[in-house]
Amino acid sequence: MKALLCTGLLLALFSLGATLQCTTCQYGLKNYCENREAHSCPADTCLKGVLDNNIFSQYREQFNYSDCVDSQECHPGYFGFATAMRKYFRVKFTCCHSAACIEDGFGMHPGRYGPLECPACFSNSTTDCESMTARRCPYKATKCITFGGIMKQVGKSEVAAAFKGCATPDFCNYITTVPKGVMQSLNNWVSFNVNRAACFDAQSSSYTSGL
N- or C-end of the chain: fewer Cβ atoms within 10 A? Predict the structure, then answer.
């Protein structure tokens, strides 16, 4: 009995003294992280993100990102939207307390549509765009969104964007709580300065072709 108690105490002390190990990389292409490095994390959470978008560049870009963060600054979820002119943005964040941050990816190409649709338009304005058409929503994007403001990705220039389109519930829940007129960061990777943001439930699609 004493031996079991001693073993338990030693294991507890070892756990308390163990340091979280996180793998970090700053801005790497999909399936590859530049400057990949495993090191001790002074905070309590490992963050991993996967970004896929064509908002900050003329062409599609996919990036991996991982870092060590405080749990209060780690926001897991699938944040994405798809709008007119085939513009889309999606990022998926995972927060975990070990080096084995497993990310299962997005699971679906942004061009694969679900049964819902939303009004859609896009312009490089910070206020509004006129809705000219309806767009089929990708799977997992079950909300319609109206957004006007500024977006910024780490390592990229600011982009003014006003759009209507489809969005994931996680993105709607986040963007509608961002204080207006203040540049606010999502996991220290993507930032938004919101002039206007509103979401409502997407409706059943009335046609079978998509944008």
Answer: N
